[in-house]
Amino acid sequence: MRVLLSIILLIVFNSVLSGQQFTIEESIELGLKNSKDLKISGSKVSSSQAKISEVNSQMLPKLSLSASYTRLSDIPPFEIITPLSPNPIKLYDILLNNYNFKLSLQQPLFTGFRLSSLKNAAEFNSKSFEVEYDEEVNNAAFNIYTSFWNYFKAQQILKLVDENLSQMELHLEDTKNFLDNGLVTLNDLLKLEVEYSNTTLKKIDAENSVELSRAAFNKSIGIEINAPSTLHSKEINSSQHEYDFDEILNEAKQNRNTLKSVEYKILALEENIDASRGGWFPSIFLFGNFYYSNPNPRILPPEDKFNDTWDIGVGLSWDLWNWGFTSSQTRQAEETKYQAELLLSKLNDAVEMEVYQSYLNYKKSLEKINVIQKSVEQAEENYRITKEKYNSQLATSSDLIDAEISLLLGKTNLTHALVDYELSRLALEKTIGRKIY
Question: Are 252 and 351 in contact (CB under 8 A)?
Fold first, then answer.
């Protein structure tokens, strides 16, 4: 039993040490789930929906209850003197304690279109926050993609440096044998050892880059910064995607949630203008009250007991002159709408520039891959030939070092180019307004 328990604990411990492996799909799912920015944006959507409920409540009957107790000062009773009676006649007793309960119901009938306009404005604002949330999801997904592929790039570069070090160790061993047999000079061996040390320094930098990119990846998906996470990814597919600039620009202007959000806000501001103009109209409301009082002032003579009465009616309230208050509110609402329209125009220009820039970056990254792939093929062939010549003592150690450096640089550049291509493609898709998650 102890042996079995030890085996289980060892398996669990090793799995923890090795870290969790993430695919790009798992990273996106976990990162979106843990994103604080998305939670903030989602809270804004919920708040905007509550605003709609708030305005709706103002269009429904309002029921209120009030109660009071009043202690009055003592005064002489109300008496009258008549010719027929030598003594004053007291009409009723003075009641010093007053108890009042009032139940009121009020229903707006007409508010100068203010409430209906405010409701429409709240609905448009809510739609604006919803499309902003969708935009935030896309941005969060792109940030996760970026951290994922940067982590992948750092790992690949470290792998290339390790491979280069392994090759150099073999060359060092061969060169030492050549030196023992008098086929090379000590200077040739020293050159290789210096280059080996330089490459070891590159490995230290590459390892540091891996740790930093892992930390950035961990935070992007919402796990501990020093968690030993690893990646499981397929090779980047550098096949060309066809894009027509005019088509993707039109698509961006139709689909970008940034533009849709401002368009909804402009519609909301138009409704706010109508709501501000409501001050020029009267407000009409239906009201009803139920009274339960001791004494009830409508019952004469006053009685020291509770009695109920009620009333119902229609009221009208109209500001005939308010020193331009309504006009000023309307002007403010109109200017706010004007500012939003100018902002929309600026955003359209910015989107056009952003699409063009992303389009050029995508084309540039694709061209870079084609050029660097040819460079890597040439470097591999040059390294193969130089290595054969070096083994046959037809090339110097300097030639071999140059060939190794060129090959490492070419492969490193290709790794950078492939990741840059994938990120530029995703950036273009995001800029167009397409979902990338």
Answer: yes
Same-domain status, 372 and 246: yes
CATH code of residue 425? 1.20.1600.10
334 neighbors 266 (Cβ within 8 angstroms)? no
Residues whose CB is less than 8 angstroms from the CB of residue 262 and which lie 6 or more positions away in sequence, other chains included: 128, 340, 343, 344, 347
How does pLDDT run across 46-100, given as a tens digit for each residue?
999 999 999 999 999 999 999 999 999 888 877 777 777 777 777 677 889 999 9
- Structure tokens given for 272: 């706010």
- In three-state secondary structure terms, 182 is coil
Separation between Cα atoms, residue 154 and residue 206, nearest integer Å: 7
The full DSSP string for 363-402 is: HHHHHHHHHHHHHHHHHHHHHHHHHHHHHTTSS-HHHHHH
Residue 338 and residue 225 share a domain? yes
DSSP assignment of 82-106, as one string? Answer: -TT-SSPEEEEPPP-EEEEEEEEEE
Using left for φ > 0, alpha for ψ between -120 and 50, and beta otherwise, residue 34 falls in alpha
User: Nearest CA to 124 among 59, 48, 44?
Assistant: 48
* Model confidence pLDDT, tens digit, residues 314-362: 999 999 998 999 999 999 999 999 999 999 999 999 999 999 999 999 9
Q: Give the residue ranges of DSSP H helices in 278-320.
A: none
Which of 31, 35, 5, 252 minimizes the C-alpha distance to 144? 31
Claim to verify: residue 330 and residue 419 sit in the same structural domain: yes
Answer for the pair 131, 261: CB distance below 8 angstroms, yes or no: yes
To the nearest 5 percent, what fractions of the chain are helix, strand and coil?
65, 15, 20
The gap from C-alpha 70 to its chain's centroid, in whole angstroms, comes to 56
Residues 24 and 233 sit within 8 Å (Cβ to Cβ): yes
> Helix, strand, or coil here: 297?
coil
Contact 344/263 with Cβ under 8 angstroms? yes
pLDDT tens profile 208-264: 999 999 999 999 999 999 999 999 987 787 777 889 999 999 999 999 999 999 999
